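Narrative of activities, Objective 1.

The group set out to show that a structural description can be obtained from nothing but a protein's sequence at a throughput compatible with the screening campaign. Below is one input-output pair from the validation batch, recorded exactly as produced.
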Amino acid sequence: MTELADLKARLLEDPQTRAEYDAQAPELALARELIAARTRAGLSQTEVAERMGTSQSAVARLESGRTLPSLRTLERYASATGSRAVVKLETQH
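Output recorded for this entry:
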């Protein structure tokens, strides 16, 4: 394992840290999707920002996983990257 993976594993052994990490899962999953869409499109954050009519720093915030953007913002991001935003509700396990 890498040093970073080892550190993550050790930190997640703490129940409180694990709970906080798990609580951020939706935001982090969305961030990964946004970055993947931009990468597939071969675009920089600046290029996506120009297509969205916003700033590079706003795109960076979207991709940070710290917040959940509105559906309208997701649609604009998707359009800028040549993607389509899809909302899906699944049964909880």
